[in-house]
Structure formats: structure tokens, C-alpha cells
Automatic annotation (TrEMBL):
Any coiled-coil regions, as ranges: none
UniProt keyword annotations, A-Z: Repeat, WD repeat
UniProt WD repeat ranges: 8-42
Name of the featured protein: Uncharacterized protein
Organism, as annotated: Aphanomyces invadans
Length: 77
């Protein structure tokens, strides 16, 4: 649940990792066992982009956004 009392349905299965963008944008990224990573606008609570695995349908176990702004994903494989 978000601080303002809103909840969002993020993925079809459990969320394994959440990170927040350090680029000055109000954004978060969620990685899931459903094989997707989603980018979220935290002001609107809306998903802005979906990323899928490289065809292996492996669960994502981590997501990070380093200072350079590149999205780094880790799959279970």
C-alpha cells in the first residue's frame, strides 16, 4: 500500500524487488516472478512501461537504477 492510502495491482505474481529512480523523477521499478519489470509513475500510480525477459520467461529477482540512470535487471537463471 502506498503512503497516501492507494494500493496498486503491480504484477500477476509476487514482486521480488522494488527500487526508486535516483534521476530526480518520481519513479519506481518493480521486478516480478511473472517475468516482467514495470516502471511506475508514483504521482499517478500508473505503470509507464513494461519490460520482459529475453524470451526465457525466467523470474526477475532484482532491479536497480544506478546513478547513471541505466536500468539493471537480474533474472533467476
Amino acid at each position: 500500500m502506498l503512503q497516501n492510502g492507494k494500493s496498486i495491482r503491480a504484477h500477476a505474481t509476487e514482486v521480488n524487488s522494488v527500487c526508486f529512480s535516483g534521476s530526480g523523477k518520481v519513479a519506481a521499478f518493480t521486478a516480478s516472478s511473472d517475468g516482467t519489470v514495470r516502471a511506475w509513475d508514483l504521482c499517478s500510480c500508473q505503470a509507464k512501461a513494461d519490460y520482459r525477459g529475453l524470451g526465457m520467461s525466467q523470474p526477475f529477482i532484482c532491479v536497480r537504477v544506478p546513478e547513471d540512470g541505466e536500468l539493471v535487471l537480474g533474472e533467476k537463471n
